[in-house]
Design a protein that fits this description.
663 residues, five-stranded mixed beta sheet, alpha+beta, 13 helices
């Protein structure tokens, strides 16, 4: 136990340190706020000299004037501006007493430089107009009447000294508002490379997740009996697909779509769905199905999926002051659920030593640390080329989720391969042992039946001698002797039946190639005189010129025909008909024995081949003939069935596999 605790502690701490190191590197080397453009004392942004082949990007973070709740036209001079940096205010709610993120405003910035530049303005929430030196250069949506349209804007700038950028914004739909992300400025080549690297990164995340979703779906369909494996692969597939939906937004922002609120609702709901899939996977591993904790976690997680889809569309537009509270609730929900999942996994590993659960622990640690890093650097970090902390944490969680399922699937495949490899050997071994045991018991039973015949014969003989001697026997004594003789005769019949049964069962099937036409003809010629004496018509129908071969035991097949034919003789009245016919049906030989006898009652058809079942009116026979016949046919790899109409007769049909090598 101490060893397991040490390993889990090392695993958890290592994951925490690795996550902290990753996010520190991203903060240091992929942060717009680190490579921000320099600002002069009078608030003018100084641009480096622009060359066509320059790869330098400057981020316009500082030096902005913001006019809350005012739409300022180019050249207009008004008061009431606020000096700010981009990221300082994510919403207009900071300027409203009711915390509403809705409203309008104007951003103004002065650049100083000479040359050709390209301005990349990331998604502005939720409508905007961009003026360069008083000239309208780009727009998204409509300020009046208000119509949101969120997309990335690329604006060319020809700078000759001081250049004014004026951005009018309006938001009445989204919980973010205004310019939330710092714009980028650089040469056309530099901006093009920036966009390319960003699209490549998000394309990698998106298509990798889709590939994992497809893979898990194929594996999910491949597991048909293991319900736990089916559920885990299903949740992995849904989680990967949800992350792919969530992470494809840069492509939507770059090209733009004429819908706004549904896209943001889809982003939020897909992120919540990823967490629901994680909760369900951990619950499958650590909790009893439908337990109180399982139902509570599932209900809360499913509820947040619904909340994430409904609130941006229906609730927040009507309750704008609730926006900050909504953001806090979502954040703490994610943090608390991830911590609780880590706790359940650690507890499960300590309790069961289940090694396949271990990869999920660092995955959830990365996700939790990404949430903390995002909260700590809010307003001071935005990725320049790659992803946000939470996106990195979610992707690493998906990868480790997939790694765990790959390990589980490989383990199952190896186990199946091992079983398949050794199955034939194991079956042969078990079959040999069972056959030996059954043969020993059958031989013992046959020997026991044979040995009992001698004392029974002696009892019968001496009973008969006492009766013949006729020495002072009264009627009561004669009755006793008659009872002894009768019961002894019954025991002898039972022993004869037992001997016949064991002799049929013990002898092995000796297979040889047999021409069924010749076999049935021989049987017909041997038995026809006896059946004629019984006053019955015995008919035969064989295919003309055909040679129909099977692999079988001649003596046992003769026994089957004898049982069927003489069973028919017992139930067919004088002048009735018994007919044997043979034909081929594809790869099987079909033998029919039909009679015009009394037939078999419908309720007896299902029992006719059962051992000891008989319906003879004189109570003769022991119900073994048809049972033995069916056993022999099945030993030959065939089948036997019966159809009958009471009062009209019966038909017994045998199917035996044809010897294809004797065509």
């Amino acid at each position: 136990m101490k060893k397991i605790v040490s390993r889990l502690t090392i695993l958890t701490l290592s994951a925490f340190l690795a996550a902290a190191a990753l996010f520190f590197i991203l903060y240091r080397y992929d942060n717009k706020y680190i490579t921000r453009a320099s600002v002069s004392q009078d608030g003018v942004v100084i641009l480096p000299g622009s060359q066509e082949d320059s790869d330098h990007i400057s981020w316009l973070v500082e030096g902005w004037e913001f006019f809350p709740d005012q739409i300022i036209e180019p050249g207009e001079t008004v008061s009431g501006s606020v000096s700010m940096y981009i990221g300082q205010y994510f919403r207009f709610s900071s300027f409203h007493s009711d915390n509403s993120p809705f409203g309008e405003g104007t951003y103004r910035l002065t650049l100083h430089g000479t040359g050709d530049y390209t301005l990349l303005l990331p998604e502005v929430f939720s409508a905007c107009k961009v003026y360069i030196n008083g000239v309208l250069a780009a727009s998204a949506g409509s300020l009046s009447p208000y119509s949101p349209y969120v997309r990335d804007l690329i604006v060319p700038i020809e700078a000759k000294g001081d250049t004014e950028i004026l951005i009018q914004v309006s938001n009445y739909t989204h919980y973010y508002s205004g310019i939330t992300y710092p714009p980028a400025i650089g040469s056309p080549r530099a901006v093009s490379l920036l966009l390319s690297s960003r699209m490549l990164f998000y394309g990698f995340l998106c298509f990798t997740s889709l590939a994992l979703a497809l893979f898990s779906s194929v594996v999910w369909l491949g597991f048909k009996k293991d319900q736990k494996a089916i559920a885990q692969n299903r949740w992995l597939g849904i989680a990967a697909f949800s992350f792919a939906l969530h992470i494809c937004y840069p492509f939507v922002r770059l090209f733009g779509l004429p819908v706004t609120e549904p896209l943001y609702a889809l982003e939020d709901a897909s992120a919540s769905m990823l967490l629901l899939c994680t909760v369900k996977t951990v619950s499958l591993l650590c909790l009893k199905k439908n337990s109180r904790t399982d139902c509570l976690l599932t209900g809360i997680s499913a509820g947040f999926v619904i909340i994430s889809a409904v609130f941006p569309l229906a609730v927040l537009p009507r309750l704008p002051g609730f926006v900050p509270v909504y953001g806090q609730i979502v954040f703490w929900y994610k943090a608390m659920v991830s911590v609780f999942m880590i706790f359940l996994l650690l507890k499960n590993c300590l309790r069961t030593s289940e090694k396949h659960s271990a990869p999920l622990i660092p995955g959830l640690v990365f996700f939790f640390v990404s949430l903390g890093a995002h909260a700590l650097t809010l307003g001071h970090f935005e990725p320049a080329r790659f992803g946000w902390f939470e996106e990195w944490g979610s992707f690493i969680l998906i990868l480790l989720f997939a790694f765990r399922m790959a390990a589980v699937n490989i383990s199952v495949i190896r186990e199946n391969n091992y079983l398949n490899t050794h199955l034939q050997e194991e079956v042969a071994h078990k079959t040999a042992a069972l056959t030996t045991l059954l043969d020993e018991r059958r031989m013992l039973l046959a020997s026991f039946a044979h040995d009992l015949k001698t004392p029974l014969t002696s009892i019968t003989t001496f009973t008969r001698l006492v009766e013949l001697d006729n020495t002072g026997l009264d009627d009561e004594s004669r009755l006793y002797l008659d009872t002894i003789r009768r019961k002894t005769g019954e025991m002898k019949q039972q022993l004869d039946m037992l001997h016949e049964f064991t002799s049929q069962d013990v002898s092995a099937v000796s297979l040889e190639s047999i021409n069924l036409c010749d076999l049935i003809m021989e049987f017909y010629e041997i038995n026809k005189p006896d059946i004629d004496v019984a006053g019955l018509n015995f008919e035969l129908s064989l295919p003309r010129g055909a040679q129909l071969y099977i692999l079988g035991d001649r003596e046992k097949l003769m026994s089957v025909l004898q049982n069927l034919v003489y069973n028919a003789v017992s139930f067919t009245p004088v002048n009735g008909t018994i007919r044997i016919s043979l034909h081929r049906d594809r790869s099987r030989a079909v033998i029919s024995v039909a009679d015009t006898g009394s037939g078999i009652a419908k309720e007896d058809l299902s029992n006719i081949f059962n051992c000891f079942f008989t319906r003879r009116k004189d109570n003769s026979g022991e119900g073994l003939g048809l049972y033995i016949a069916k056993s022999i046919v099945m030993e030959h790899g065939g089948d036997i069935r019966v159809s009958s109409t009471p009062g009209e007769g019966s038909v017994f049909t045998l199917w035996l596999p044809v010897d294809e090598q004797k065509r």
